[in-house]
Design brief:
Blueprint lengths: L21 H41 L23 E11 L2 E11 L4 E5 L6 H8 L7 E6 L2 E2 L5 H7 E4 L10 H5 L8 H10 L3 H6 L17 H13 L5 E5 L7 H14 L4 E6 L10 E6 L2 E4 L3
Parallel strand pairs: 3-8, 3-9, 6-7, 7-8
Antiparallel strand pairs: 1-2, 1-4, 4-5, 9-10
Amino acid sequence: AGGWARPHPPDGGLAAPPRAGPAVLALFMALAAAEMLGLVPRAGTALAAAGAAARRLFTLADTPAPVAEPTMSATGPAARPAGHAVRFEGVAFAWAPDRPVFTGLDLEWREGERLALLGPSGAGKSSVAALLLKLAAPQGGRITLGGVDLAQLPAADVRQTIACLSQDARIFDATMAENLRIAAPAAPDAALWRVLAQVGLAELVRALPQGLDTPCGEGGARFSGGQARRIALARALLPAAPLLVLDEPTTGLDAETEREFLETLEAATRGRSVLLITHRLVGVEKPDRVLRLARGLALPAAG
């Protein structure tokens, strides 16, 4: 009583186990179908996201370079830069015709110099970085690298000479090694460990079970904000470019983490020409010279 009746076989042996009836089978089929149907919305969302990402990739691939590449002259290739000094000479630039950023900017970044460029939001600090990296071109005047007009140099050559750590440098949902090698795909593991040591992360990464194969998570989610910025800095240091542009490199960090990061930055970038673009100095940056952008001009900072 209280359960299924188990009929006894006529020979007195063990009873056969009861068979699942049609109702039980139908119940399991319904549950399985419901589970599968529950995956459909998620699959549809993932498919839509993948389609949107693919469209963005095709759009990017079809987008022309922001600055036209130099054409080969009849006299052969352009002269090679003699050194790494940078000069802005009477540069005029605007992102939109009715909003000029610079109308005659003169600026010198000397070879081997640590130059801080200060200014409020909208002063044109990031425009300086964009012009240096050939992400935009001046509408007047010229910018020279080692005495050669940037307009005469291929963008790839410029970006091998000038590395950049931007305020929105992205850490991707990939391994530590893959994130670092974005800047230098052929870099050996020894080079990765070298830059991780420079930014103070080598011991941490060595202690992780997967080491260089540790997934970073989207946006560096598996690490703290300060550690994610150090990963981005290590990536910028990997190509060993002689000039380094740091565009608001401590954006989003709290005061203590910012100070620690800047101390690491000062030590890790010794021996390079450094342009630190920021809205304020914390006091640990140790620049050789400080300029302030105001009204489209680069003026010596007072105090």
